[in-house]
Amino acid sequence: METLWQIEANIDDMNPQNMEYVFQKLLDLGVNDVWAMPMMMKKCRMASMLCVLCPEELIENAAAIIFAETTSIGIRYFPVRRRICSREIETVCIDGEQIRCKISSYDGKVTNISAEYDDCRAAAARTGTALKEWQRKAKEEAYRLYGCKTATNC
């Protein structure tokens, strides 16, 4: 278990296309995660809540980015406790294509396997086979190879 800090900023009156740039600047800073949620502010104005998860030492730099790159005039931040699964990246070979898969485990048991989107997208573009088919095949192969790697019931 670790303690991180969650920063929140309500953002309205900003072109939503700019949010991708803000996300990237925050991720480049080294924050753990960035997300946004739709919300309604006073006078029923639609807006977004920008949320950032980071270690305490990045709060000031993250705040500087938020104030410089968004229309927000205030932020909130507070400590949050986080528990995460361990993660490994493994590569599977599907029809000659190399697809990376993230294997997540908790308490010694595989809890999830996800195929890397960019790898599946590239394979779909190269071959003409549907993206969702690459994702399905990669997950199936990864579960076959690694799904019982640490599980006790296999």
TrEMBL record:
<protein>
    <submittedName>
        <fullName>DUF111 domain-containing protein</fullName>
    </submittedName>
</protein>
<keyword id="KW-0533">Nickel</keyword>
<dbReference type="InterPro" id="IPR002822">
    <property type="entry name" value="Ni_insertion"/>
</dbReference>
<dbReference type="Pfam" id="PF01969">
    <property type="entry name" value="Ni_insertion"/>
</dbReference>
